[in-house]
Each structure stands twice: as C-alpha cells, then as structure tokens.
Design a protein that fits this description.
With 263 residues, the protein is of the alpha/beta class. The chain is built from 10 helices and 7 strands.
C-alpha cells in the first residue's frame, strides 16, 4: 500500500503513540479520519492535521458499528486504541473486564471485519493492529491486558491468511516498552530488570513499514527484550520462575495506581 492519498482510519489518537502516528500519516499525505471518546481532545488534532473526526466509545458495540458506517471508504485501518488493563484480576469488576475485552479485542476485530468487506471488493487495502509484546509472553499483574493482546495477535495472523489473495493485507506491530509516551512512561518508573526502551518514532516506523510492505508481524524492541520474549513464549514455566526470582520493584504498582486514578 502507498499511504499518500489513501483514507486512513486511526483509533486511539488521543493517547500513547496515536499522536505520533497521526503526524507521520499526515506528513505522508494520508486523508486522515481520527476517532476518540472526547471532543475536546480530538478537535485540536483535527485542526493540526486537517483530519476528519468521529466521536466513538470503542467499548460500546453500537458506537463501533456506527464508526465503521461513518468511516466507510477507509482504505487503511490502524487499530491503535487500547486500555492498559493492568493489575490483579481479583480487583476488577465484571464491568471492567468487559470493557477491557471490548476495547482491546472486540473493537479492533469488529472494525476489521466491517471495513475489510469494501476493501476486498476494491481489491486493495490494509489493516494494521498495534499490539504489544505482552501478546507473546505473560507477566505478573497483566492478565487482562495479556489475554487481549494474545487474542489480537492470533486474530491478526489468522485474518491475514483468510484475506490472502484479495489484495488486502493484515499486519500486527508489537512494541515493547516505549519511552516518552503511554501509561508506562507516564509513571516515571524504571523498566523491569533495566530493560531498554524504544523511541516512539521506531514504533511509528514499524507501522509504516508493516503497511507499505505488507509484513505479517513486526516486533519493536531492543534485541535483548525480543530474545527474552521469545524464550518466555516457548518456555512459560521457566519464564515464570525467573520472574519470581527477580527482585521486586514498584513499577507495576505505579502503573496500576496511575490507571486507577484515570478511570
């Protein structure tokens, strides 16, 4: 896919790397459609990037349906929106569990399903999911987030096979710890085990590369984190024991507390 001149629907533009993605897409000449829950957050971005905006709550199935209808003609979908969903599952209410699954998994899958139909008819399009390395390896206090990212990765890789030969590509880009932006960066915490972070620009480049070259999966992280993630995904019992032996830190507690205060 060539991004210039295409209609791109970007979710999650008001948080994390969404703004950086919007800036790069606008610079490449995309016709941007931005979506979020808060008008006051969307309006400045619309003015800055000359974008069209659609208000929608991705936890609401009716809003997701309406978003797909209002964004008809989308040629590239970048499903970037996600909730942190960190903490002990026993502390979650059923409503919070439902919202986590709805925003992180159901909404991107449904938008892909609804928008892909016209893409297939046109014989051209791309769907890019922004996931996480948490979709490959489990860690403590991230059950809901990990579950949704595991599911998103599985959906992406399978849906890609379903659409093979239609002219529509499907990719997933999975960052590790991103500095400067997002819930982790906002806590000011050090990374677990001192793992290195990546700049937001690297994640943006990964998304652009996935779309333009139709790459199935791109992991954006330092080499050591990619290696550790591969080990953890193949040997979960071993990874669990290593995590238990690691010195405890306050990182996850800070993330959970920041998450709770933002709800």
């Amino acid at each position: 896919m060539h991004i210039a001149g295409t209609t791109v629907l970007l979710t999650g533009v008001t948080g994390g790397i969404g703004g950086a993605l919007a800036a790069e897409l606008a610079a490449r000449g995309a016709d941007l459609v931005l979506t979020g829950r808060r008008r006051e957050a969307l309006d400045p971005l619309a003015e800055r990037f000359g974008a069209r905006t659609i208000l929608a709550d991705l936890a609401d199935p009716d809003d997701v349906q309406r978003l797909a209808e209002e964004a008809a003609g989308t040629q590239i979908l970048i499903a970037n929106a996600a909730l942190p969903s960190s903490g002990d599952v026993l502390d979650y209410t059923p409503e919070q569990i439902d919202r986590s699954i709805a925003v992180n998994l159901r909404a991107p899958a449904m938008l892909a399903r609804l928008l892909a139909e016209d893409m297939v008819t046109a014989g051209r399009g791309h769907i890019c999911f922004v996931g996480s390395l948490s979709g490959m390896a489990a860690t403590k206090s991230s059950s809901m987030y990990t579950a949704t990212k595991f599911g998103l990765r599985g959906f992406s890789l399978s849906f890609r096979q379903d659409l093979h030969g239609t002219g529509v590509g499907v990719s997933i880009v999975q960052p590790g710890f991103v500095r400067e932006l997002g819930m982790f960066a906002n806590t000011g915490s050090s990374t677990p085990g001192g793992v290195r972070t990546v700049a937001p620009e690297r994640v943006v480049k990964g998304v652009m590369r996935a779309i333009e070259r139709d790459v199935a999966e791109i992991n954006v992280a330092p080499l050591e984190l990619k290696f550790l993630t591969k080990i953890a995904s193949q040997f979960p019992g071993f990874a669990e024991r290593i995590q238990r032996l690691a010195a405890p830190d306050q990182t996850m507690k800070k993330i959970v507390e920041a998450q709770r205060t933002s709800r």
